[in-house]
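Tokens as discussed.
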């Protein structure tokens, strides 16, 4: 019997009085790939909206919700059933061609990757460079070793803090504070890698923290974020500095973007009246493994 992963993601917004909801953007449905197969996907929303699906500039599946009914609560529930296939260990794969560091892309790759190499906050370049240069460890001469060391360094030098509020702090802020969430660690990794010549993109999704007995993972029970780096002949390789893992099948990708802001799972507006108060947001994410029989597929 094979194994599938079921993801239940529920979000509930509460208000003191009924409000009218404006357009909402939902980034909750992953796309199939050779490393992940989406078996089923369902979204339930109350009050019920009209949904329109489209692909964004990165090829992510996006649902636009249009509401017609006022309510004092907005509930969005997403359920996924998928299979995630293991990636080989990039650092230990026999016969893998080493990629020298310092690193440079071909002229053709640079045309397509240029937006992912530019810093999100160019004015923070000196602060990030100073942090990189302060590392007492010997400089790596191989790209994957450099990137692994960068991920490990972020994990070791910064304290993880869970932050439910939206937004991602800048890379320089994470360096100065010495702490951050998974989103903050991912952005610091991206900016440091970009400053070092690599193309990087932001990934939002979930962490399967039930996949391995005895393994300790950080970031379960909520949405999770990490980064991807593009390497010739390897493609986009996953790096999760929060958990110091690379190319792991425990990372369940939902969407990839150039910036963290573009990867917000749920975003939207509501019409606020005098005296109306936003009472809070409740988020719950459950990820579990379950037996799966391919013969039951329709």
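Sequence:
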């Amino acid at each position: 019997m094979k194994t599938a992963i079921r993801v239940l993601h529920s979000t509930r917004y509460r208000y003191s009085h009924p409000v009218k909801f404006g357009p909402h953007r939902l980034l909750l449905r992953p796309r199939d790939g050779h490393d992940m197969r989406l078996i089923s996907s369902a979204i339930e929303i109350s009050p019920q909206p009209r949904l329109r699906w489209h692909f964004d500039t990165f090829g992510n599946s996006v649902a636009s919700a249009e509401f017609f009914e006022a309510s004092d609560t907005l509930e969005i529930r997403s359920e996924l059933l998928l299979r995630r296939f293991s990636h080989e260990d990039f650092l230990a794969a026999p016969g893998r061609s080493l990629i020298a560091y310092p690193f440079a892309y071909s002229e053709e790759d640079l045309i397509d990757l240029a937006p992912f190499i530019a810093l999100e906050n160019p004015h923070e370049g000196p602060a990030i460079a100073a942090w990189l240069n302060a590392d007492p460890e010997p400089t790596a001469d191989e790209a994957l070793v450099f990137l692994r060391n960068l991920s490990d360094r972020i994990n070791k030098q910064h304290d993880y803090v869970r932050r439910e509020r939206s937004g991602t702090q800048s890379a320089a802020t994470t360096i100065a504070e010495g702490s951050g969430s998974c989103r903050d660690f991912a952005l610091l990794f991206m900016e440091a890698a970009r400053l070092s010549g690599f193309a990087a993109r932001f990934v939002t999704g979930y962490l399967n923290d039930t996949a391995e007995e005895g393994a300790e993972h950080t970031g379960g029970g909520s949405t999770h974020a990490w980064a991807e780096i593009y390497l010739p002949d390897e493609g986009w390789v996953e790096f999760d500095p929060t958990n110091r893992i690379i190319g792991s099948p425990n990372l369940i990708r939902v969407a990839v973007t150039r910036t963290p802001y573009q990867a917000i799972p749920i975003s939207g507006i509501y019409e606020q009246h005098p005296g109306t108060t936003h009472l809070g947001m409740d988020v719950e994410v459950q990820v579990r493994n379950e037996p799966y029989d391919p013969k039951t597929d329709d």
